[in-house]
Amino acid sequence: MMRRYLAAAALALTAPSVFAQTAPAPAAPAVAPPSATIDPGRIAAARELIDLLMPPASRAQMVEGMMTPMLVNMRRGMAQNPVFAAAMNGDPRVKTLFDAFMQRQQERTMTLLRASLPGMSDAMTRAYARRFDVTQMREIKAFFMTPTGRIYMQQAATIMADPDIGAWQRTMMTDSMGKVQDDVADFAKQVAALEPKKK
Predict the structure, then answer these.
(1) pLDDT (tens digit, 9 = 90+) per residue, 106-127?
(2) Whose CA is closest to 53, among 134, 123, 135, 141?
(3) CA gyration radius, the chain
(4) Helix crossing, 134-144 with 147-156: angle to 10°?
(5) Residue 24, CA distances (Å) to 19, 30, 150, 170 in order
(6) Burial level of 37, CB count in 10 A (0-12/13-18/19+)?
(7) Residue 90: count of CB within 10 angstroms of its CB
(8) Strand ranges inside 18-160, DSSP E
(9) Count of alpha carbons within 13 Å of 102, Cβ hemisphere only?
(10) Residues 169 and 66: beta-carbon distance below 8 Å
(11) What's this model's pTM, rounded to 2 decimal places?
(12) Cα gap 176→169, rounded to integer Å
């Protein structure tokens, strides 16, 4: 029984990313394909902009500050799921396993993020360089150096900790987990209904 609950938890962790991939994306301007050569001047301007938006000295702290509230909200959303709540209320061992499971996921996520920061910076640099020319990036940089731009940079990292964002994430997590459980149950029925292959 406990294994089933933890398996459902593992599947539910993927639900938000699936949700994000299936949501309709807004129309965007044409972007050069990854294989296309990017002008070195644009790369240099993009690197300056990224270093301003996410200073190397505080980059890890900024990313962790954005991710931690998301992971906390995910944990709370899963705990509020009726099936999980009933299991944890009915057997304290389930809650112990659940807490340990979520702690491991959070530690692994943060470890992966820290190790991936250089690659993330390089990827963001190229992404900005493909989408904006040098003049545009200088204008963006100029905005972020204004008082309003600096306040925006400070506050943007705290948005994911906002109570309204947290409530929305927990609701989405609860709904997603319910759908995952239904899908897993339906998949198991389909597999069970398969006729054995003839030799």
Answers:
(1) 888 888 888 888 898 999 999 9
(2) 141
(3) 22
(4) 90
(5) 10, 17, 31, 21
(6) exposed
(7) 11
(8) none
(9) 20
(10) no
(11) 0.59
(12) 10
Q: Nearest-CA neighbor of 67 among 144, 167, 169?
A: 169
Which residue shows structure tokens 């963001």?
124
Upper half-sphere CA count for residue 192 (Cβ side, 13 Å): 6
User: In 3-state terms, what secondary structure has residue 4?
Assistant: helix
Residue 181 has what pLDDT? 67
- Count of positions (residues) in the chain: 199
Averaging pLDDT over each range in 59-63, 135-139, 186-190, which range is the top one? 135-139
Note whether 121 and 54 are within 8 A (CB): yes
Place of tokens 């294989």: 35
What DSSP letter does each residue of 57-83 carry, written as one string?
A: GGHHHHHHHHHHHHHHHHHHHHHHSHH
